[in-house]
Amino acid sequence: MKIVLIGAGSAQFGCGTMGDIFQSGVLSGAHIALVDINGEALEKVRKIADAFISAHKLPFTVSATTDRRTALQGADFVIISIEVGNRFELWDQDRTIPQQFGVKQVYGENGGPGGVFHALRITPPILDIMADVEKLCPQAYTFCYSNPMTAITTTVLRKFPGIRFVGLCHEIASLHRYLPPILGVPYSDLRLRAAGLNHFSVLVEARYAKDGRDAYPDIRAKAPAFFAQEPGYSDYWAAYLKTGKIPETEGSTDRGASSFRRSSRPWTDRTLFKEIFDRFGLLPITGDSHLGEYIGWADSAADHKGILDFYALYQAMLAQPDRAKIDLKLKERVVPIMEGIVTDSGYEEEAVNIMNNGYLSDLPSWVAVEVPAKIGRDGLTGVAFPGYPKGFAALLRNYCGVYDLTAEAILKKKREYVIQALLVNPVVTSCGGIDEMVDTLLERQSKWLSYIER
User: Fold this and answer.
1) Which residues in the chain land under pLDDT 70?
2) DSSP letters along 391-444, please?
3) Rounded Cα gap, residues 247 and 252, in angstroms
């Protein structure tokens, strides 16, 4: 079996994913081909992997190359996690330049004008990878961690409709962190299903496994008290400033820890989250920073301080010097999915990003949706939600046109579609300055966006 990791020069992705693979008996004996455009960083990760395999006498082999096509020959699985340019420098441009032109976007990584430009930069290299996959290993399953996930997945599957391409995101893990303490039962005693768009998804079904009883009334009754006390990113950031160490984020159960200076604001970092919970009766699976990227009124409801603290904490976390190591603590869901395909297990994976094809009937068939899926020898089959909540479906529909036009801008290379993707965007409330804003971003990011006709 051959597994190709593209973007493996990133120690977080390369080492973390290999740590997951090394725990699998089903994947035992696999060859892992590491690929990156940064040969120096790639060689560092390869040496770490070789040393780890030798020290633990593991039944795996590893190679490393900057030649993607060589690595893809005969691949069974391909895992992509790439970024282009300086992540935070470009992210700051995505966020602040639209704000300078009066757009009240709250984050700008995946949604809003910032999300459009992030997609314009990163999707073309992924399309190039998938062209090679289609030619060299067309039966391989490709799993992509890169953002903006819905824009990427929608565009890739529009250009390559027959390819086995799946977007994977770990945001669903918030249900593991929150619901057991909210409900007072182990996660294994719950049957949960969430669905929506990536980073714009809600818990739709919740039942107790023992008797099938609906758990949502208990969630609605108990969640407010839980989130009023749970530390938020502002608390973690305050602890980091005090200690210089990254605290456990969002998973900590020790709310009385002395390292935290609890904010006096209830639902810290989740004020927009609370509006969705209160007004739609649904529990989001992510916080204000991501939810706020897709909703026109988010600026008036989001916890802006919490979002800025999360952004600062995220930069500090990625700057930690000890990330280049392999451990045997499962981090992501791609390995269980690969195992499920190999063994024809039929298990239900909690969240995958695949083309809609009627899974959410209120949304267009051409947009990628995030839904659970059954995993087996024939791949991934999404779970349909014929009774998806109408109110939240309407919020999702409001953003689908942005993904349609973003995909067209990338595939047709037309500036006019970039303009239109912004003019239909819910967070853009004025047409004044849009042309100048687009041209400013095209100019500042011309190294990656020169393919757009001007």
Assistant:
1) 249-262, 321-324
2) HHHHHHHHHHHHHHHHHHHHHHTBHHHHHHHHHT-TT----TTHHHHHHHHHHH
3) 9
Q: Which residues contact 91 (CB under 8 A, 6 or more apart)?
A: 108, 109, 114, 118
Residue 262: predicted pLDDT: 64
Check if the beta carbon of residue 279 is closer than 8 Å to that of residue 264: no
| CA 215 – CA 220 distance, rounded (Å) | 9
The amino acid present at 365, given as its one-letter code, is S
Cis (ω within 30 of 0) for the bond into 148? Answer: yes
Domain range annotation of the chain: 173-318, 400-449
Say what the alpha-carbon torsion angle 191, 197, 198, 203 is, to the nearest 10 degrees.
-20
Q: What is the pLDDT of residues 172-194, one digit of tens each?
A: 999 999 999 999 999 999 999 99
Q: Which residues are CB-contacts of 74 (< 8 A; sequence separation ≥ 6)?
A: 2, 136, 137
CA distances (Å), origin 355, targets 200, 225, 374, 411:
16, 37, 15, 17
Question: Is 176 labeled as catalytic in the residue annotation?
Answer: no
Q: Which of 373, 449, 383 is nearest to 417 (CA)?
A: 449
Residue 318 has a CB neighbour count (10 Å cut-off) of: 12
Of the residues 170, 176, 199, 290, which is catalytic?
Answer: 170
HSE of 248 in the Cβ direction (CA atoms, 13 Å)? 8
The number of residues making up the chain comes to 454
pLDDT confidence of residue 246? 86
Give the pair of three-digit tokens for residue 404.
């349609």
Whether the CB-CB separation of 165 and 352 falls below 8 Å is answered with no
Rounded to whole angstroms, the Cα distance separating 374 from 363 reads 21
Closest CA to 133 of 164, 107, 172, 159: 164
